[in-house]
Amino acid sequence: MSLSQTYTQCLQTAFQRHRLGRDKAEDRALLSEYLAKIEDEVRSDYHVFISYRVASEAAFAKKLYEELSQMTLAETGQKLRVYLDQVRLEDGERWDRYAHTASCQAICRQHIDSYHA
């Protein structure tokens, strides 16, 4: 049995005991640690990834980013996390590496393409 299988089984057991109201202090500690990891992962992902044609849509993409970034999620009160390369990337960073990661992690991907592009 691998270490990840053992960890998974411990989590499952802790969840089961918690649902039954029979959890122990070590169950609560394990679940707390696990949920903190999940929360960190969720907080690091983007809600929206904006893809656009640089030559014709950069200004509109920036305006959309500014508008979306001011919004909050009703359920959690979190600010919407929006990825726009012209804001998120530092000078000299490879856009393709970071854009791919951000795009894969985003909940919603919005592509902007004009009729004239």
How would you characterize this protein structure?
- The protein is mainly alpha-helical and 117 residues long.
- The chain folds into two domains: 3-43, no CATH class; 45-112, no CATH class.
- Helix content is 59%, strand content 10%.
- It is built from five helices and three strands; from the N terminus they run ααβαβααβ.
- The chain has helices at 3-20, 25-44, 54-69, 85-88, 95-105; strands at 48-52, 82-83, 108-112.
- Strand 1, helix 3 and strand 2 form a beta-alpha-beta unit.
- The protein is elongated and about 60 Å long.
What is the CA–CA distance across the termini?
56 Å
Number of helical elements: 5
Low-confidence stretches: none
This entry's quaternary arrangement is single chain
How are helices and strands ordered from N to C?
A: HHEHEHHE
Molecular shape? elongated
Q: State the major sheet.
A: 3 strands, parallel
Number of strands: 3
Question: Mind telling me the C-alpha Rg?
Answer: 20 Å
Brief write-up:
The chain has 117 residues and is mainly alpha-helical. The chain is 59% helix and 10% strand.
